[in-house]
Design a protein that fits this description.
Radius of gyration: 24 Å
Number of helices: 0
Mean pLDDT: 80
Number of domains: 1
Strand content: over 45%
Shape: elongated
């Protein structure tokens, strides 16, 4: 007997929306192939171009009574903590009792201040943060009709990365991303 596949909506893109917050495009793509089990390939793709359109700043130099106030504008600078992209890609597999998902997350470089400082400061409060990639794996086993056991590993490869910088608590300095973590749970439906 031949293995037959039925396609449950091969849509590209399934959902594509545009929001005006800077220039922000968010596209979601979902493919489903069904043959007694459901296999999924999914992606969330975001491109972000957030820039200041008018941001005046003032600085003072000299000592009284010879203080000089200078005005400058950060127009065109990238908004701090807004990466150029955030993408999630994944594979999922499901049958009656078992499902698993593998997800790959990517985030682009970010400036941590409105001046778009590239070189890190001595106290770690400003400076460009590098892009990062994280791989997550999860699984679920369903049994006795109403029970399930879930588990997973986040940051499977134990990637070392930073998500932002802080000037106050708990800083000052770089705030690291989560290292490899594990989770396990048992659930029941009543």
């Amino acid at each position: 007997m031949q293995n037959q596949f039925s396609f449950l909506g091969l849509l590209l893109p399934l959902l594509c929306q545009s929001l005006i917050l800077g220039s922000y495009l968010n596209a979601h793509i979902l493919f489903c192939v069904v043959d007694k089990v459901v296999d999924q390939v999914f992606a969330t793709i975001s491109f972000i171009d957030s820039r200041y359109t008018d941001f005046k700043i003032y600085s003072a130099s000299g000592t009284a009574p010879n203080v000089v106030i200078t005005e400058s504008n950060l127009k065109g600078n990238r908004v701090e903590n807004a990466p150029r992209y955030i993408h999630n890609f994944g594979l999922g597999w499901n049958n009656t009792n078992f499902s698993t998902t593998l997800q790959y997350k990517m985030s682009g470089k970010i400036f941590t201040d409105a001046n778009n400082t590239v070189t890190p400061s001595a106290n770690g409060v400003t400076g460009l943060l590098d892009k990062y990639h994280v791989l997550d794996l999860s699984a679920e086993y369903r049994f006795l009709k109403n029970y399930n056991l879930k588990g997973g590993i986040n940051n499977l490869t134990d990637e070392m990365y930073a998500t932002r910088r802080a000037g106050g608590y708990p800083g000052p300095g770089i705030l690291p991303g989560e290292g490899r973590t594990f989770f396990l749970s048992i659930g029941a439906k009543f």
